[in-house]
């Protein structure tokens, strides 16, 4: 849709998405989702999740990120979990806070989900350290 409201939500969502998960990632995601078939989904995600939910008051970006880590663990969405581990660090979550959120998820979502979440997070945090995007420990 191309109404002023949709344009505004998309613009706000696009900026928030870049802030949380990084400009390079967003550019790649939008490029992958640029087919006529995929474009509506990318537009919907940018408007609804990023333009409406992530821009709301009431929770910090850090807290929203930690919630996403737990929900993505529960859902077993490992690619998205990796993306949001990166976002959590960008939003100020510490390695300890990420670990504790994943431990909490492990207790309620099951050990196999927790183990995979830890593997994903450890890999992403290691990659971020190698790139100088964070210091672990």
TrEMBL record:
List residues of the Carboxymuconolactone decarboxylase-like domain: 41-122
Q: Which SUPFAM superfamilies match?
A: AhpD-like
Q: Which GO terms describe its molecular function?
A: peroxiredoxin activity
Q: Which Pfam families match?
A: CMD
Annotated protein name in UniProt: CMD-domain-containing protein
């Amino acid at each position: 849709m191309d109404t002023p409201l949709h344009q505004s939500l998309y613009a706000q969502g696009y900026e928030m998405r870049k802030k949380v998960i990084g400009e390079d990632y967003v550019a790649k995601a939008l490029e992958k989702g640029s087919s006529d078939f995929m474009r509506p989904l990318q537009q919907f995600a940018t408007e609804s999740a990023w333009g409406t939910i992530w821009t709301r008051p009431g929770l910090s970006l850090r807290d929203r990120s930690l919630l996403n880590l737990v929900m993505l663990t529960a859902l077993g969405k490992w690619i998205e979990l990796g993306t949001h581990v990166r976002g959590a660090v960008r939003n100020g979550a510490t390695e300890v806070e990420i670990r504790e959120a994943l431990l909490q998820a492990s207790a309620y979502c099951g050990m196999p989900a927790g183990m995979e979440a830890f593997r994903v997070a450890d890999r992403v945090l290691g990659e971020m350290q190698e790139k100088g995007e964070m210091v672990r420990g």
